[in-house]
Amino acid sequence: MSVEQTLILVKPDGVARGLSGEILRRIEAKGYSVTGLRMFTPDRELLAAHYAEHEGKPFYEPLIEFMSSGPVVAIRAEGHRVIEGFRSLAGTTDPTGAAPGTIRGDLGRDWGLKVQQNLVHGSDSTESAERELSLWFA
Ligand code: DAT
Ligand code: MG
Questions:
Q1: Rounded Cα distance, 118 and 110, in Å
Q2: Model-level pTM greater than 0.95?
Q3: Reduced to 3 states, what is the DSSP secondary structure of residue 120?
Q4: Which ligand is nearest to the CA of 13?
Q5: Strand residue runs (E) in the chain
Q6: Which of 3, 62, 69, 129 could potentially form a cystine with 123 if both were Cys, beta carbons 3.0 to 4.6 Å apart?
Q7: Number of helical (H) and strand (E) elements in the chain, helices listed first
Q8: Ligand 1 atom closest to residue 93's alpha carbon, by position in its atom list
Q9: Ligand 1 site: residues with CB under 6 angstroms?
Q10: How far is CA 74 from the centre of its chain?
């Protein structure tokens, strides 16, 4: 198994709630290396490329709207099986049901809004990690 890299985003809700440090702490505490870090408000063009697989779904527009509403922290993390490992740290998409111990399970909940504000994004495969890292760390 070779060393992988993945794209992690602290979404605008995570940044606004002051959880960027806690999320970075959990990534490092698990033993992964942070090899890139950027903080900025992404534009719609970047988000459309990032979320291309979801275009046309009912939650797509609110998702793009939410993700462009404020700064995000983009993290390039590295380690053996980091793609799977961070998805496990993050927990399931819906934070209400995410297991305690995970980022979404411990720190997230349903705020009654259309878009699930679930604190983080993590690439889901080697192909998407490569594609997403080239967008966020061009
Ligand atoms: P994940 O972020 O766990 O990889 P995903 O790639 O399926 O989940 O979806 C991307 C984001 O879109 C997700 O983090 C939150 C939002 N989303 C997904 N499914 C949704 C739904 N049914 N309703 C509202 N937002 C949703
Ligand atoms: Mg996804």
A1: 8
A2: yes
A3: strand
A4: 1
A5: 3-10, 33-40, 72-80, 120-122
A6: 129
A7: 7, 4
A8: 3
A9: 59, 63, 93, 115-116, 118, 121, 124
A10: 8
Residue 134, C-beta contacts closer than 8 angstroms, at least 6 positions apart: none
Ligand nearest to the CA of 92: 1
* Binding positions for ATP: 11, 59, 87, 93, 104, 118
**Is the pLDDT assigned to residue 137 strictly greater than 90?**
yes
Residue 115 has pLDDT above 80, yes or no: no
Told to judge if 121 belongs to the known catalytic residues of this protein, a careful annotator would answer: yes
Give pLDDT tens digits for 18-55: 999 999 999 999 999 999 999 999 999 999 999 999 99
Q: How far is the CA of 130 from the centre of ligand 2 (A)?
A: 14
The Cβ of residue 63 has, within 10 Å, a number of other Cβ atoms equal to: 18
Q: What spacing in Å lies between the alpha carbon of 51 and ligand 2's midpoint?
A: 8
Instruction: Give all domains of the chain, ordered by start, each with its CATH number.
Output: 3-136 (3.30.70.141)
The alpha carbon of 95 and the centre of ligand 1 are apart by a number of angstroms equal to 11
Q: What is the structure's pLDDT at 114?
A: 65
What band does 127 get if pLDDT is binned at 50, 70 and 90? very high
